Write a sequence for this structure.
């Protein structure tokens, strides 16, 4: 079962057409990524600042199917369809909260890196176990 979180559409997220400006979806996906760690008792900010482990994006595949407007919310489901030694693919599917219609989806490949050297490193065992819980 995927992890699920709710992200509100804020006033500053929309463009002149009155819909969410497409780059904002990538911010929503990252907010869901942070929530994923935090809600699973791994503080994302500590992962970065204390453990010095990061997950920079190296590839994105994305589709948009329904616009969102100010006042909407996006329910995002996050799952892990592929888990490697030093990288993982995170799948995000977003549904408009008020009616459950699919708005967007993305597969984002992230590398695991040591933030001091910015070199790829193996995914730590506790994070691997977390990702495996949401494998599809």
């Amino acid at each position: 079962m995927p992890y699920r979180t709710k992200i509100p559409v804020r006033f500053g997220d929309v463009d002149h057409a009155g819909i969410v400006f497409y780059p904002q979806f990538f911010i929503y996906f990252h907010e869901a990524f942070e929530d994923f760690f935090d809600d699973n008792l791994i503080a994302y900010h500590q992962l970065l600042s204390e453990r010095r482990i990061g997950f920079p994006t190296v590839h994105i595949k994305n589709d948009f199917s329904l616009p969102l407007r100010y006042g909407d919310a996006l329910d995002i489901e996050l799952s892990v369809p592929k888990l490697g030694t030093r990288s993982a693919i995170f799948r995000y599917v977003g549904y408009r909260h008020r009616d459950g219609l699919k708005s967007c989806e993305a597969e984002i490949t992230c590398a695991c890196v040591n933030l001091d050297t910015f070199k790829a490193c193996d995914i730590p065992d506790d994070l691997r176990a977390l990702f495996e819980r949401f494998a599809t």
Observations:
- The chain has three helices and eight strands.
- The mean pLDDT is 97.
- The beta strands are 3-8, 53-54, 57-64, 73-83, 87-96, 102-111, 113-114, 119-120.
